[in-house]
Recover the amino acids of this structure.
């Protein structure tokens, strides 16, 4: 199942609205890179675990 990371769920100074979806490992990697480059976090195993713990299942948009 695809996973989603949504910056809107976390307060930030930039009011970031980015949403990342994909396979779990892809989302963890991309969201961690985004957290570092945009939000000033330091890349670490702890950051990646924190990101992983906040992921939600993507809701299919089938008609």
């Amino acid at each position: 199942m695809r996973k989603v990371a949504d910056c809107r769920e976390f307060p930030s100074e930039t009011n970031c609205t980015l949403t990342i979806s994909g396979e779990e490992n892809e989302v963890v990697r991309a969201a961690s890179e985004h957290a570092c480059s945009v939000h000033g976090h330091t890349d670490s195993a702890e950051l990646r675990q924190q990101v992983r713990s906040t992921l939600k299942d993507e809701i299919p948009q089938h008609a």
